[in-house]
Amino acid sequence: MTDTTAAAPAETPEEDVIEQKAVRLAKRDRLIAERADASGGAYPVAVPVTDTIPAVRERYAHLEAGEETGDVVSIAGRVVFSRNTGKLCFAALQAGDGSRIQAMVSLAAVGEESLQRWKELVDLGDHVSVTGEVISSRRGELSVMVSDWAIASKALLPLPNLYSELSEEARVRSRYLDLIAREQARSTVRARAKVNASLRATFAERDFIEIETPMLQVQPGGAAARPFVTHSNAFDAELYLRIAPELYLKRAVVGGIDRTFEINRNFRNEGADSTHSPEFAMLEAYQAYTDYNGIADLTQALVQNAAIAVSGSTEVTWADGTVYDLGGQWDRISMYDSLSEAAGVTITPQTGIPELEALAAANDVDAPAHPTHGKWVEELWEHFVKGGLTRPTFVMDFPVDTSPLVRDHRSIPGVVEKWDLYVRGFELATGYSELIDPVIQRERFVEQAKLADRGDDEAMRIDEEFLRAMEHGLPPMGGMGMGIDRLIMAITGLGIRETILFPLVK
């Protein structure tokens, strides 16, 4: 049996996989026998490599059909296509970035024994090293005319059909196959790397310092979310995976690191859908002596620079072909004013809960968990306003009771200086004029503790260590948090499971 001329179907029957694996294991045994005097068994420690496939393609892109160069290179790649004929074998070798080059193994160049070994041993999915002259075939295909070759790694399982689309479930469960088979998967990895590099460059230009804060915490804080709980054997203590780095980053600001940020993982023991993942990458940043307006300006620059890094422009093209403009000055709207306009009823921070409940009932809006004035306002705003946002928009000035870490608005009683940034219909980032008064912060924590006592799993707890840090003097500042996965979504148009390389799946 041989599988060198055709890839496995997208959904290969298990019995076929078992049969193909048995054949490939036998080939592995043969490789071991042939290398009995060498260390490393079937898999060599190293193979000759003088050039990469992308570099060869770039350097010899000018070759015309039938042209020879006399230049000898050694390259390595994965076999993704193979066609064996009597005296000449063709293979497409693929690099990690998806670029390919043709390898031509001929009787005249390698001899009968080597050609026969190629035919008998090389399968789709194998990593091979080839050495030979760079030429352009008679059909104009950039190629290496092989004079020597070696199997670098033997694939024991067949590749999926590279010409059939993998299902989404197969893509996220076997991302390594997705990366081999699909350019979109590879480009998303590159886009994410460019975004992270751009974020760091934008911060560096503004003299921010990147720091790292604990992922294991004695108590979770910095966000309204349900944490994951674990146990430390060393300390014999219950610990929590962090839901946000905020309270530690603010401690750093107390210590004099006036401009700081962190890009790292957060964990929230909540639902998973097209925009939420229990584990996600988060950016948080804090800047002393600015407010939520200055932080909004910073956030707009971060997102626009990231878009340029990926797409070369603030106009990005999503996976479905939609062109979305992240450029220009983004709108800033009031939560209360925009809700009042959309609902046709004046709603203010003083509007009572019975009035909000009546408005919700009249419009089939479900009650939020543990309803307060602020939670009702945010629920109604999502119903009336959120779906109508098309351009990137900062939604400003939130209810005080849903934002315990935020400074009171300087001129509007009952609200805080907080914004949420909406892009592509979902919340991308949030920013504050940070609360720096430890007395008021304690009062807010106490109110949150009361909600927790009434069963609100997302309510914050009183953090005495953080309050003690605040009592040493926290300067006026603005802060922001943004999901990296969601930023990739905004730029690429993909869902969250596509932007996370290895998402959690059951």
UniProtKB/TrEMBL annotation:
Domain Aminoacyl-transfer RNA synthetases class-II family profile: start-end pairs: 192-503
Enzyme Commission identifier(s): 6.1.1.6
Keyword presence, DNA repair: no
Gene Ontology BP, a term: lysyl-tRNA aminoacylation
Binding residue positions for Mg(2+) 2: 427
Domain of life of the organism encoding this protein: Bacteria
GO molecular function annotation: ATP binding; lysine-tRNA ligase activity; magnesium ion binding; tRNA binding
Any Gene Ontology CC annotation: cytosol
Pfam families documented for this protein: tRNA-synt_2, tRNA_anti-codon
Catalytic activity: tRNA(Lys) + L-lysine + ATP = L-lysyl-tRNA(Lys) + AMP + diphosphate
Localization terms from the record: Cytoplasm
Obligatory cofactor(s): Mg(2+)
InterPro entries attached to this UniProt entry: Aa-tRNA-synt_II, aa-tRNA-synth_II, aa-tRNA-synth_II/BPL/LPL, Lys-tRNA-ligase_II, Lys-tRNA-ligase_II_N, Lys-tRNA-synth_II_C, NA-bd_OB-fold, NA-bd_OB_tRNA
Keywords recorded for this protein, A-Z: Aminoacyl-tRNA synthetase, ATP-binding, Cytoplasm, Ligase, Magnesium, Metal-binding, Nucleotide-binding, Protein biosynthesis
Residue sites binding Mg(2+) 1 per the record: 420, 427
Enzyme class, broadest EC rank: ligase
Similarity comment: Belongs to the class-II aminoacyl-tRNA synthetase family.
Official protein name in the record: Lysine--tRNA ligase
Source organism of the structure: Microbacterium mangrovi
Gene behind this protein: lysS
